[in-house]
Design a protein that fits this description.
The protein is of the alpha+beta class and about 220 residues long. Helices cover about 45% and strands about 20% of the residues. A hairpin with a 4-residue loop joins strand 4 and strand 5. Helix 1 crosses helix 2, helix 2 (about 40-50) runs antiparallel to helix 3 (about 55-75) and helix 4 (about 135-150) packs across helix 5.
Amino acid sequence: SHLGFQQELAVELGYGKAIHHVLRQVAETARDQGGVPNAKELARLVDDEFYLPFADNPGFVRMHAAAGRLVKRYVADFKDDLTRVWAIERPFELHLEHGILAGRADVILDHEDGKTGSLAIVDYKVAKSEERNDRYEQQLAVYAAAGRGEGLDVTAAYLHELNDGARRAVDISAKPIAEAVAQVSIAMKGIREGQFTASPEDKKCKGCDYRLVCTHAKLRPVD
C-alpha cells in the first residue's frame, strides 16, 4: 500500500486475535481435562492454533515464538485461573434506552476470594496502551453492569497485560459503573440521532485506531 500502514495494522490486529484464540484453547483444554496443560501440551496448542495469515515468514516465526513465551508465562504465573474458568468468550448485552450494547468478555473466573458463584471478569490486552486504559476500564465496567443485570454476582474485574504479565484490578463499584453506563448511553443516543461531531483531544487521539486517516485527529504524523 502507498499509504504504508495497512499491512502493519493487519499483522498487529491479527497477532492480538491469534493470542486470544490460543489462550481460549488453553482455557478450554484445562476445563475439559480438569487440569492445567503440561509444557508439551502447551507447545502443541500454540503450534496447532496460532494463525497469522498476513505475516511474512520471518514475521510469523518471530511472533509464533513470542506467542509461545507469552502463553508459557501466563500459565506459569496464573495457572490457578485455569482451574477457575466459569466461561470463555462470554457474551453480554446491556439494554439501554436507545439500543442494546453487546460485547464478549475474554474469560470469567469463579471462586473469587474463595467464594463459589463470586465471579471475576478478566480482559486480555496484548498491546500495552496507556492512552486506551480509560476505554478498557469503561468496557469492563459495562460488562460488570450487564452481568449484574443478569443476576450474576460479579465482584471483580481485571485488565491483564499479556506482554508483561501484569494484572490490574478495575474499580467496578457503583459509581464508576453508573458513569460508564451513562457515557455509553450518551454515545448510543448520538449514533441513533446521527450526531458525529468531532471532539479531538491529545489523549483520545493517541489511543484511536483511525488517527492516521482522520482529518480531525491530533498528533497526526507529519508528511
